[in-house]
Amino acid sequence: MVEINKDSLENALSSGSSEKKEQPQMPSVSKEQEIGHHQGALTTLLNERNELVKIIQNVEAVMQAHIKRLEELGVRIETKKQ
Q1: CA distances for 22 relative to 13, 15, 17, 58, 69, angstroms
Q2: Which residues contact residue 13 at a Cβ distance below 8 angstroms, ignoring those fewer than 6 apart?
Q3: Which residues contact 15 (CB under 8 A, 6 or more apart)?
Q4: Looking at 3-7, 30-34, 46-50, 70-74, which range is the least confident one?
Q5: If you placed Cys at 33, which of 19, 29, 70, 72 could pair as Cys (CB 3.0 to 4.6 Å)?
Q6: What per-residue confidence (pLDDT) applies to 21?
């Protein structure tokens, strides 16, 4: 599993690596360009998270339908607490 360094975005993914690789020099961008880049990234990630929530809700609904039918057939279902 990759550990993310939240304090430094530039070093976020490389901090967990045991080997030290020389990082290429980052091109200089204006503050407005960098803000736009991060805003776009956040928008994309928010949309991805929303889609993931929808998938989880669909999986849960199908699981509940199977559980309901098993209970109708006389199978006792026990859920484990984590």
Answers
A1: 14, 13, 12, 44, 58
A2: 2, 4
A3: 3, 4, 5, 8
A4: 3-7
A5: 29
A6: 61
pLDDT in tens, 3-30: 666 777 666 656 555 555 666 777 788 9
How many Cα atoms are found within 13 Å in the side-chain-facing hemisphere of 65?
6
Structure tokens of 18? 């045991």
Indicate if the pLDDT at residue 47 is higher than 80. Answer: yes
Kindly list the domain boundaries of the chain, sorted by start residue.
46-71
User: Would you state the structure tokens that stand for residue 9, as one six-digit string?
Assistant: 């975005």
Alpha carbon distance 10, 21 (integer Å) = 13
Tokens of 5: 């360094």
